[in-house]
């Protein structure tokens, strides 16, 4: 004990303990960060594909065809990949009753396991974009909000509004708001191009740049409304219109009240 106490009082003991603690914490973080969901075995994958096929035949084949070849009102799903299915079904856009309208984000019909089974089945038909793994979606670590804001304003703001609040398109269509959307689904939308949205390949926007865009969207989502009602964050046009409408209405009301009182 005396020898241990003597070593503890040594002037090099503090730096050595600090280095040991930093090494231990860093190693633990690396191991935890590298931990991923184990891959499906061949048997489990086959069973999931079969389950997805049965779900597809019950809930999707009436529009997309028995073999996902497409039909008069729905496109072919051959080659769209698992990412497209995970986005459309995971956000509740599919299945939908009326294919003539734009699909809206709503509560999903299927649970996560069923969505994965459907995605695996469609992915088994032909190669296509895969669902991004959780390890590749660490936008907090790998993304840059400043770069993401610039990329968003260049590539996305003309449809989704410069504040990612959504906006109107032609022929009654619209670009939905990106507030409250999971990072995985934002990434999937960029690589699959759902509905009116173009596909942003890795040559157009690199994976790291996609993470930067997601980081900027999440920063905009968490930004507090210090001025009160956001009014869609579309700037002085909406704010001026609201003030003009309320102010003009107030003046008209005062004029009517004065005219009535004068009688």
From TrEMBL:
GO MF assignments: heme binding; iron ion binding; quinol-cytochrome-c reductase activity
Top EC group: translocase
Entry GO terms, CC: plasma membrane
Sequence intervals crossing the membrane: 241-260
Subcellular location: Cell membrane
Keywords noted in UniProt: Cell membrane, Heme, Iron, Membrane, Metal-binding, Repeat, Translocase, Transmembrane, Transmembrane helix, Transport
UniProt-listed SUPFAM superfamilies: Cytochrome c
InterPro entries found in the cross-reference section: bc1_cytC-su (IPR009152), Cyt_c-like_dom (IPR009056), Cyt_c-like_dom_sf (IPR036909), Cytochrome_c_Oxidase_Subunit (IPR050597)
Protein name: Cytochrome bc1 complex cytochrome c subunit
EC number of this enzyme: 7.1.1.8
Residues covered by the Cytochrome c domain: 47-126, 143-221
Main location: membrane
Membrane topology designation: Multi-pass membrane protein
Pfam families associated with the record: Cytochrom_C, Cytochrome_CBB3
PANTHER family referenced in this protein's UniProt entry, alphabetically: CBB3-TYPE CYTOCHROME C OXIDASE SUBUNIT FIXP, CYTOCHROME BC1 COMPLEX CYTOCHROME C SUBUNIT
Reactions the enzyme catalyzes: a quinol + 2 Fe(III)-[cytochrome c](out) = a quinone + 2 Fe(II)-[cytochrome c](out) + 2 H(+)(out)
């Amino acid at each position: 004990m005396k020898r241990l106490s003597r070593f503890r009082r040594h002037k090099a003991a503090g730096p050595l303990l600090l280095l040991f603690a930093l090494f231990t914490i860093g190693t633990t973080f690396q191991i935890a960060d590298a931990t991923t969901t184990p891959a499906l075995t061949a048997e489990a994958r086959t069973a999931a594909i079969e389950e997805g096929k049965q779900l597809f035949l019950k809930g999707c084949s009436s529009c997309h065809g028995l073999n996902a070849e497409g039909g008069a009102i729905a496109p072919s799903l051959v080659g769209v990949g698992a990412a497209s299915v995970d986005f459309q079904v995971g956000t509740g856009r599919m299945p939908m009753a009326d294919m003539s309208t734009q699909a809206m984000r709503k509560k999903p019909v299927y649970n996560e396991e069923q969505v994965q089974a459907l995605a695996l089945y469609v992915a088994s038909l032909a190669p296509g974009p895969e669902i991004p793994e959780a390890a590749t979606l660490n936008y907090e670590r790998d993304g840059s909000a400043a770069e993401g804001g610039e990329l968003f304003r260049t590539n996305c703001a003309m449809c989704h509004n410069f504040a990612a609040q959504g906006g109107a398109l032609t022929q009654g269509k619209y670009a939905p708001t990106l507030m409250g959307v999971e990072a995985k689904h934002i990434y999937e939308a960029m690589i699959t191009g759902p509905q009116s949205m173009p596909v942003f390949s890795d040559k157009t926007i690199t994976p790291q740049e996609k993470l930067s865009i997601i980081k900027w969207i999440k920063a905009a989502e968490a930004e507090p409304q210090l001025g009160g009602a956001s009014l869609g964050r579309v700037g002085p046009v909406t704010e001026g219109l609201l003030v003009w409408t309320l102010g003009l209405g107030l003046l008209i009301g005062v004029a009517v009240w004065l005219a009535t009182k004068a009688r």
